[in-house]
User: What shape does this take?
Amino acid sequence: MFMRIDKLQAELPAPKRKDPNAAAALQELLGGKYGEMSTLGNYMFQSFNFRSKEKLKPFYSLVASITAEEIGHVELVSNGVAMLNNGPDNDGDEMPGGDISGAPYEAMKDVRLAAAFLSNGGGATPVNSNGASWNNDFITTTGNVVVDLLHNFHLECGARLHKLRVYETLTDPTGREVCGYLLVRGSVHAHAYALALKKITGVEIEKFLPTPNIPLGNIPECQKYLDEGSHRRLYTFSPNDYKSMSGIWGGEGEMALPGDPPGELEVVDGHPEGGKIHQLTGVPSAFSPDYAPEEMFEIAERLYKASR
Assistant: This one.
């Protein structure tokens, strides 16, 4: 089962302005071929379908714990997309809907992903940067441990390339922070799958890393995560389970990748501290949460007071 915490895995800065085209670019990291829906979908169904879980517990624990982290990555990218569509943080919702006959959103017909506004009210969905839907064809779950781990290694290297290219298109701090955090954590996952494959096969696949061959230290938004040691940590995302993956990650003195700040790999019980979820502005003229939401707000306030 899964437990949900009302925080993001990383603290995201507020956008400087509304930028729906930047939001569309960031969508690639959600619903693209190497996006977070793909990493989540692969690891989640592999963990569900894993054979001989008890006999292969360190390997099962690795895939299962990374699955839980990937759910949070989907959440992080989705919030980044919505924040870029929303614009800077503010103290409240927009004024009542007013007269909509003046085409207040005429400009939206010219943005690259108009459906993000027309269908989703500025929110994220599992599509790529062109609006093509993510689908089951991006999932590999063969039941063969080596094949699945090798696929996961490839997927994380492809995702790293993905994130680097999206990063190069963005200037707003929100999108760049999403990329910086995910580049560090994705590198952890690639390293973990490489070590798992080495334990089974003896092949030192970690020597392929980093792919693409650019140090994380070259990317400013990665720096604070490197400084705090995030590149050396895997989280269990559970108070009691999945600790056996320490036999793969750090159990035999395994160290950080060359080029990253040095140190021994470690498994951390639980989850990262995380950061706040930003409030998205209510926009009555876009019927979000509605054209005249005052009564809805009053009902919600009464219900909230009754729950205290």
